[in-house]
């Protein structure tokens, strides 16, 4: 078990955890948001981030600090905590992104980590190579090799109590991401950023982002704290958390404010388009859109940044509460309705239902079937697997509702979309207590039919009959011919 990270609660791939940051003498509850602070221009002062927004951790860029003479001198002399006036944990980014954009690296891994240590960083980052999506495979492999060499050097640097992150690269090659995750997990480094996903998010490729994270997670152990590097829009936090990400950093709150963009959990709005402010934070309850538009530029920017942060932190709290209540996937479903590309992201997440099932609790509050996607949730996958282990009698009637013809068989089981068949004794156990709409969708019926098929497959010697209420032919086709079909609506 990694000493710095402890899990307290899980839901799907999401978790509430505690990241102990010894150098700051702080324990950060995850999922956590790290506001990005540019030491040269802070839109919202770090002290205010802690006091007003409850920020426990922030991230700043050691490359910018290194490159700005007076800031560098003050950071070396007084330390980052005093320079920024922030009481929580401070993570530093190495500037890999800037270095990769603006030329070759002329500093060694030792030097860059030692500099972060000297300025008082609590979590440092080595210089990795953020390989963009869709590059040729040999480039992704070569750059990953360099990143891995640097992580191995980083392991050997004496950094005292400072935690060090181990970025996971591999571009859009799932096997490389997985191998990178496994390699990083094998080092004694502490925090694991999934790197270079920003280009995917900028292009709304949430499905590809999900695949990249899922692959990295397969390589990383369950006890590895995972940072989705550069993911700062609250719209996608629930999706990221459900995949198993624990840390998010937001530069978006400030960058968007600069362009008069107003964040919501359903997407970004332009201030000029707003007639109402759909938020009850202190900024939005004390201003109208006209008030905000009339403010001088710097004041408007600060107010918008404050609103953007309120929305962002509120979403993190909502996600934590959803994990506690066991309805994180219901929240992801809601967010997936904000934009078609978010729906792609959710559908991609469900492609990994088997992977998420491993950390999904066996029992939760209630399963709400609220879309056709619900039929692909980890709970359904788990129930179908469970069907292989249930013992069955020689003849068995599977039926929706009451067992109309039950006495002709040894036993009668219930059939409920999207799960399929189960013994009546399990009716009160999660997830079979699910709330399902009366007007069942085809995906739920198909999943139930797949459950029947699974049961028939593993019990070839049992006489099975399915009593259904007018299931469409296309759904019934999924049930093997050995199962007798009885349409109860014709009774
Ligand atoms: Zn607001």
Question: Could you characterize the architecture of this molecule?
Answer:
- This protein has 491 residues and is α/β, with parallel strands linked by helices.
- The protein contains 21 helices and 18 strands.
- It has helices at residues 46-51, 62-67, 69-78, 80-84, 96-102, 109-118, 137-156, 174-186, 198-202, 206-219, 237-242, 252-258, 282-286, 289-294, 297-325, 328-336, 340-351, 353-357, 378-386, 442-458, 473-476, and strands spanning 5-11, 14-21, 26-30, 32-37, 57-61, 89-93, 123-124, 163-164, 192-194, 226-228, 247-250, 261-264, 267-270, 395-399, 411-416, 420-422, 463-468, 484-487.
- Strands 6-5-4-11-10-9 form a six-stranded parallel β-sheet. Strands 16-15-14-17-18 form a five-stranded mixed β-sheet. Strands 1-2-3 form a three-stranded antiparallel β-sheet.
- Strand 2 (14-21) and strand 3 form a beta hairpin.
- Helix 16 packs antiparallel against helix 17.
- It is elongated and about 85 Å long.
- The chain starts with a strand and ends with a strand.
- The mean pLDDT is 95.
- Bound molecules: zinc ion (ZN).
- Zinc ion binds at residues 279, 281, 283-284, 307, 310.
- Residues 13-340 form the tRNA-guanine(15) transglycosylase-like domain.
- Belongs to the archaeosine tRNA-ribosyltransferase family.
- It comes from Haloterrigena salina JCM 13891.
